[in-house]
């Protein structure tokens, strides 16, 4: 008699990580078949429930144990300060979080805008810079162009957004890529399901990045 598979709840962020995350988890053997167009926010597929969240909410759902496992950018994870188990760098959605100003700007730095206020404050403190931090939600670079802020802390990948807006990257705060995150209690209680899944994902990631 074969045992029922252990129910598993996964947290994935909508946006650029979603598709690649679903594809990777499917290759690892999870039965994920999503309808092409749907306004549903969660899907039940066999023993797996998939939750579609905003990026910042993934560490919260995983830390509080609503989701057993999730995928999120290292940048968002570091900003959240949540204590989740992070067994794997999945290697996609690579980018860096950088300190950015208008090319040639020389004004004193009194205000810095970012979607990452905690990481920005820690960086300014480390550099001994006394500046106000303003949290914004998107198109962060505009803050530096409009005078809302003297500098911004934002993501850079190809650098084309910087180039198109006459901005320059002065320092990299951190490098980021998509990470697998796991609830610490689920790792113990669902060990026999989660450990082999993490190992399959580790092998797939090694094949793909190695
Ligand atoms: N240009 C980029 N190239 C590669 N990876 C990126 C890029 N921009 C962001 N990322 C990574 O992908 C993650 C998700 O980015 P995405 O653009 O989907 O979020 P978003 O739509 O800005 O999020 P939200 O509006 O929910 O805050 C980021 O946290 C980061 O780790
Ligand atoms: O160096 P690049 O390749 O130009 O990529 C960097 C841009 O990508 C992200 O923005 P996104 O396109 O996700 O828009 P957003 O500002 O709405 O998050 C990020 O916030 C930068 O603006």
UniProtKB/TrEMBL annotation:
Main localization (coarse): cytoplasm
InterPro entries named in the record: ATP_PRibTrfase_cat, ATP_PRibTrfase_CS, ATP_PRibTrfase_HisG, ATP_PRibTrfase_HisG_short
EC code(s) of this entry: 2.4.2.17
Example GO biological process: L-histidine biosynthetic process
Enzyme class, first EC level, given as a word: transferase
Biological role stated in the UniProt entry: Catalyzes the condensation of ATP and 5-phosphoribose 1-diphosphate to form N'-(5'-phosphoribosyl)-ATP (PR-ATP). Has a crucial role in the pathway because the rate of histidine biosynthesis seems to be controlled primarily by regulation of HisG enzymatic activity.
Family stated for the protein in its record: Belongs to the ATP phosphoribosyltransferase family. Short subfamily.
Subunit structure: Heteromultimer composed of HisG and HisZ subunits.
The protein, known as: ATP phosphoribosyltransferase
Biological source species: Deinococcus ruber
